[in-house]
Structures are given as structure tokens and as C-alpha cells.
Prior knowledge:
Blueprint: H1 2-13, H2 17-29, H3 32-39, H4 43-57, E1 62-65, E2 68-71, H5 73-100, E3 105-111, H6 119-130, E4 134-140, H7 143-151, E5 157-161, E6 170-184, H8 197-200, E7 204-208, H9 213-225, E8 232-236, H10 240-248, E9 254-257, E10 268-284, H11 291-308
Parallel strand pairs: 3-4, 3-5, 7-8
Antiparallel strand pairs: 1-2, 5-10, 6-9, 6-10
Helix pairs in contact: 2-3, 2-4, 2-5, 3-4, 6-11
Amino acid sequence: xxxxxxxxxxxxxxxxxxxxxxxxxxxxxxxxxxxxxxxxxxxxxxxxxxxxxxxxxxxxxxxxxxxxxxxxxxxxxxxxxxxxxxxxxxxxxxxxxxxxxxxxxxxxxxxxxxxxxxxxxxxxxxxxxxxxxxxxxxxxxxxxxxxxxxxxxxxxxxxxxxxxxxxxxxxxxxxxxxxxxxxxxxxxxxxxxxxxxxxxxxxxxxxxxxxxxxxxxxxxxxxxxxxxxxxxxxxxxxxxxxxxxxxxxxxxxxxxxxxxxxxxxxxxxxxxxxxxxxxxxxxxxxxxxxxxxxxxxxxxxxxxxxxxxxxxxxxxxx
Length: 318
């Protein structure tokens, strides 16, 4: 019984957005008739709604007279807060609409390839031009961790090397890059314009301990093991940029994808490895309904089509 009485009191006190709009319009125009005309509704609709609101609040908001209406003291107090509340609601509506149109928002992106150039560079540059208020958060990481973050909705999408199918995820193969050996400028191998794995088999390689280092390590083992040789690979606790600097000072060779070759590292040269092409895919959750991400994925597919047709120069700038 006590619960029912409490529910009745809550219903009596409930205020709807239309009540706020009608009261503000009546106050601004000084008349229910003029407010109705401005809002495109019947005067009786406004009059009845405001009377209903006054009954719920237990106080008169307007003094009615022949010339129109004036606010009571209670009405002045109510209208002050009503205007603030309605502006907050309208602001929320504008924000939601903007999110739905991908004008604002946030995209969390896991990456594997370099951002120095190539596909991801094109994607980020063109998307930013069209959606300057969408925030893009980037993070490196190994494939398993990034896919776990996607399943947990902590990442919207990850761009990973390979075409592996990940359970509970969508995958779209988007682009490929040539694999390059990274050599010291003074290396004898730098005289060759293209290398074979047999040219590299006896060399010392260095890889990072964090992503994409483990992937590169396994890639090297697989390729050189095919020649019957176990490669000399030395892990280094440095990032991608410092790894290339270590190559420059002669600590060893490494390999990278085509996107990295845009970078200019003193003392380093890049040479393609014959026949070695690395595919990259977008991985995301089918449950992801982030509008900004959906536009981002659509842009990635458009750029992918340009790359596949060999028309990289025609990547749309929007």
C-alpha cells in the first residue's frame, strides 16, 4: 500500500519535456494563444497541459487574464530552471545527432603497421579531413591482446598482419605491403636492389620484444628455416624507431613492411625481399554499433578499392 502511494506521488510530480516547452512559450509570448500559434498546436492543448502541470506541482504558474497570462512567483522560479533544463536536453539531442552523423565521437584503433606512410596514413589523413571532431586513439599491441580488446569492446578495430579468422569477430582483408630488409647503409647487401632470403640467411637479426617484434621473429624463423638454417635473432627492448637506429650502427638487420620505408633514418637503407608480400586485415566486433567507427570502416574499404585497382594516387581526399 505504501509503495502504491509513493508511485502516485511520483506520477503527480512527473514533468514532461512538452510541459517545459509549453510553459516557456507561454511566458515568452504572454499568451496561450500566441504560444500555440508559435508551436503549431491547438491553444486548448497548451492550456490543458499547463493546467495539468500546475495540478501535479500543486501551485499556479500563470495568472490568467483577458489580455493573456503572466507568471506567478512560483512560475518565475519554475521557468528559470525549466529554461536551463530544456537547454540541457536540447544540447543532449544535438550531441546525439552529431554522434549519429559521425560528426563527433571517438574511435579506438589498434595498429600493427607503421604510420609513416602507406594505407593507414592515407586512411587517417582522409578521415580526419572529413571528421575533424572525431577523436582517434591509437595503440600498438600484439594480435591476441588487440583481438581480446575488440571482444571486450575496448577497441573498435585493429589492423593486423595476416588474414587469420578470429572467432566472434568480423575480418576484412584490406591491403598488402611488400616486405623489406632494413640494412646499414654500408652493408654489402645494400648494393643489391632486391634481396633473396638466401642473401640474408647468415645475417644477425634484431627485433623488438614488444609488438610487432614477436610476429617479426616468427616470420624470420619460418622463412629462413625453409633454407635449413636456424636464424640468429636477438631481441631488443626498444621501440620501432630505435630498432632502426640500432640497424644504422651495425647491431644487426631487421625486416619491416613497405609503409616504414617512407621514413628517413640516417644510416639505414631498405631493400625489398623478392616475392615477400604481407597482407593486412581489419578486425572488429559484429556487435560494435559506434557510428564513427562504421564511417571509418567504410572509408577504409573505399581506400582499399583504390589500392587494389592500382590507383593509390586517386585515394579520395573528401
